[in-house]
Amino acid sequence: MDPAGGCPHARNARLLAEGAVAPVILPGDIEGMAVLGHDALRDFLSHPDVAKGAQHFTALTEGRIPDGWPLRTFATVPGMTTADGADHRRLRTLVSSAFTARRVEALRPRVEAVTTALLDGLAEAAAGGDGVADLRRHYALPLPLGVICELLGVDPAHQDRLHRLSSLVVATDTEPARAVAANRELLGLLAAIAGDKAAAPGDDLTSALIAARDEDGDRLSEPELIGTLLLLIIAGHETTLNLVTNAVRALCAHRDQLALVTAGRADWADVVEETLRWDSPVSYFPFRYPTRDLTVDGTLIPRGTPVLAGYSAAGRDTKAHGPDADRFDLTRAGAAKHLSLGHGPHYCLGAPLARMEAAVALEALFTRFPDLDLAVPESELPRHSGFVGNSVRTLPVRPGG
Fold it and tell me: What is the pLDDT of residues 158-184, one digit of tens each?
């Protein structure tokens, strides 16, 4: 796996041509596997003999994973993403009420208000930049980051620092010393935020989690509290940030598909779902581990092997989505549902929020700026650092209007 990332789709197509499961070499020459095929990945994600807990990661338990390993946080952070069974259900229950369809719909007016203000800011940035503005910086980032921080009761003054640190944590090309420092700084910041909330609780999710910790340490430990905040902040904005960015890129490159939406022959929810399938915001997500030697689609995955979930590959698997799986098509019918928000017990808890935020953001953007287009060719956009996130680092656009 190339730690620097890059567009995954050509590589995915080559790997899929060989089979649904592929051996990979992770940073540090750690042997792993990637499940790429849609059907194989769907089955693997819900298999009873596949776990998330770090105690099942053979190389880690044998001491072969150093502190500065760029993917160590994915494997070891305490919380939902590294818990199984009853522990996973306990942690998920603590935050699930904040992400129900009803609670998410209640957030819609706030998301719409934030979106309107951000569009004004995008227009101002373009006016001061010869008609060009970075849509990712001025629009796709502050919306989901602002919403999740508001849900958690995090002071807006922390947002830029939280994004900078979380970007270093999820990148797979971060140098070891810098990765250790970024993790330490991020955990320290989250501990300070939790400390402030403990001293002055509010009507927010962080305060509710602290109350659960203080009420019963068996319900939520201190490391689990910090790990849960880490997960909610990173997953709560990085995925939606990439989703909105990738959807804008797709629509600018496929004006005929945008015309379908403006003509009422497709809707913004269709744009969100097709973007999730066609250009998943997460390319390869770490980690799951077979708890016994497991054969997946004819390939043996030894017990304790770190396995990547190949969401970007599964989204373009022709066996599931048809021979034109690499085509962005809002009218696509009859294809299997995508897996880009997960499947099984660890299905993305924030999926309703991500879908709503993205649909609101896209509709407002192209309603306000119907002629919006990229300011540079797609091939010149700098790619996301690493093979976990799948997007570009900047998105210069000309809003027009």
Answer: 999 999 999 888 888 888 899 899 999
